[in-house]
């Protein structure tokens, strides 16, 4: 009888300390590392992180190596993830100026010399940005100032280096670089669909549910916001 109790006790301890294996899509390593550090302070379960590209994550899912997978909605769709998922944040769209350039109102675009916009062929936010600009009554006055880019990171670099005056960025890129940038204005959501960040439940468990609840906590959301992942 004592042996049975001992075995159950050992099994119970192992179960309580079960690792949680989480796959994470590109661009979310910094906030997740901070959040998981905080999670470990109050939980005994260890979160194992597996960062990688689409091919790597697809292999991990097919081999059932993951308990959960964090990524944008479009990434999960491309991976054909059909399991239950929960939204943990959003990427918004903002118009940002370089340091020294005032951008208090969209009308201030008439005072800048250059505006970087992501090519619509490279992402929905590029098309959304262009549609927003075209809706402005003074669009004919700024049309010649618009420069298309194939890489959203180029817009950030050029803003920081002072080579352009304004650019459309997603909120994650803005918040991670805001100390080096100027003013920003939020683009009305009537012009775009915010990118949703989800955690998909690949192998659901009590431990995974505990982690998901922590991702939704005020502490985790504060960290997400610091990295431009909003929740509204």
UniProtKB/TrEMBL annotation:
InterPro entries: ModA/WtpA. GO terms for biological process: molybdate ion transport. GO terms for molecular function: molybdate ion binding. Transmembrane segments: none annotated. This is Molybdate ABC transporter substrate-binding protein. Pfam families: SBP_bac_11.
